[in-house]
Design goal:
Elements: E1 2-10, H1 15-29, E2 35-42, E3 49-56, H2 59-65, H3 69-81, E4 82-90
Antiparallel strand pairs: 1-3, 1-4, 2-3
Helix pairs in contact: 1-3
Length: 91
């Protein structure tokens, strides 16, 4: 399995926009084959910090996810309105 922790630091007052994109991506991702878990969290202590935690069955399902319409649409929002840091774990 593969676990991604995707940290988003929103910029320019775009927290609501990025959070909405993260929620949309979460809803779509949970329907994808190979998605074990997909959650989005908003920091209670650090404004503008979001965390998306993803768990995928394997590299193939993650690669398919990264080509999905929902991913391609919402990654644009993330790239335009936030700084992204990704941690990847395989287990």
């Amino acid at each position: 399995m593969i676990r991604l922790n995707v940290f988003l630091q929103t910029e320019g007052g775009n927290n609501a926009k990025v959070l909405e994109a993260a929620k949309e991506l979460t809803a779509a991702s949970l329907k994808e084959e190979g998605c074990i878990a997909y959650d989005v969290f908003e920091s209670a202590t650090r404004p503008g910090i979001l965390l998306i935690c993803e768990t995928w069955a394997d590299e193939a399902t993650l690669a398919t996810h990264e080509k999905s319409e929902a991913f391609l649409k919402n990654i644009l929002v993330f790239n335009e309105s936030s700084k992204i840091k990704i941690e990847k774990f395989e287990f």
